Amino acid sequence: SLSAGLDLPGRFLFAILTLMTLIAILVFIEEAVYIYRKIPSSKRSIIIWINAAAPVISSTSCIGMWVPRSTMFTDFTAGIFFAIVIHKFLMMMIKECGGQKVLLRRFENGHFTITTGPCCCCCLCLPRVPITRQTLFWLKLGTFQFAVFRPVLVFLSIVLWTNGNYVLYNVSPKGPALWISCFIGALTLCALWAVGIMFRKVRILLKCKNIIPKFALYQFIVILNHLQTTIINIFATQKIIPCAPPLSSTARGSYIAQQLLIMEMFLITVISRVVYRRKYHDLEPPECMAEEPGDKKQTP
Fold first, then answer.
1. How many whole angstroms separate alpha carbon 223 and alpha carbon 117?
2. Which PANTHER family does the record associate with it (predicted)?
3. Which of 52, 53, 34, 42 minimizes the C-alpha distance to 92?
């Protein structure tokens, strides 16, 4: 623990960040109670899972901040949880459309546009894919594989780490860390691609259910938890972030990333409460029936 070696400003910063984490947890608990009481059971657990993403990441970052040696375990825990949340977000969009059968009926003659990020946004020559039960299965499989294989790869990494074979910041081709990270990165891109394809199709239909700000919050968590942390760790390994005894460059980079995540996830938790705090009904209002231009419009 670093608490014994902290000066007064450092202890004050730790106290503020810990307080922000506790407030985020309390806000989530209050929101979970509201969701449990007000939202139909078919959507209840999915929405609670998605709302829990930011508080869980904030909590793991806070633990890693107080106990630096636990950083690897806390990062892996946050990664596993968010892998499940990505799949839950896709399922939430399907549920908000009324379920798979209703979605297929609403978009009976529609098509998925697969030229979307993060995989194929530049491949404009790719054809549009008809919306069928099979294509929905492949989209769900795209996120489900990440929720399954990410925990398996994390478990493998911990086993290798305890044996001394896995070094987190070792990017040598001879070490397993590089290959496991590349494989996880490929799985992540496939999962995000599936969510992006579905969102692009339903964003107008679900505009009355705040799907655009919900997707924006989800994207912010992806960027901050993955891209931001990766960039800081790269800077740390290249010694761009200088060491500050007793912290090495890599330890200080991890330390900075955790503190930033606590503040960012606190803000996302508070904003999520505003965005998700509404009653959920089936898609009945006429304004919810709008579809993307070019598709055959269905009568309510």
1. 13
2. ORGANIC SOLUTE TRANSPORTER-RELATED
3. 42
Are 49 and 90 in contact by the 8 Å Cβ rule? The answer is no
CB 204 within 8 A of CB 195: no
Token reading at 157: 């990494």
DSSP single-letter state for residue 111: E
Spatial neighbors of 222 by CB under 8 A, at least 6 apart, are 82, 86, 192
d(CA 282, CA 99): 10
| Dist. CA 137–CA 96, nearest whole Å | 17
Residue 236 CA, distance from chain mean position: 24
pTM metric for this prediction: 0.83
| Residue environment code for 135-171, b if the CB has 16+ CB neighbours within 10 A, otherwise e | bbeebbebbbbbbeebbebbeebeebbeeeebebeee
Tell me the two tokens of residue 253: 């980079």
Token output for 161: 């780490």
Question: How buried is 123 (Cβ within 10 angstroms: 0-12 exposed, 13-18 middle, 19+ buried)?
Answer: exposed
Over the stretch 136-191, which tens digit does the pLDDT of each residue have?
Answer: 999 999 899 999 998 898 888 888 888 777 776 666 677 777 788 888 888 888 99
- Those residues with Cβ within 8 angstroms of residue 155's Cβ, 6 or more apart along the chain or in another chain: none
CA atoms of 98 and 298, how far apart (whole Å) = 14
Q: Of all helices (H) and strands (E), which one includes residue 155?
A: helix 133-162
How many whole angstroms separate alpha carbon 188 and alpha carbon 185?
A: 5
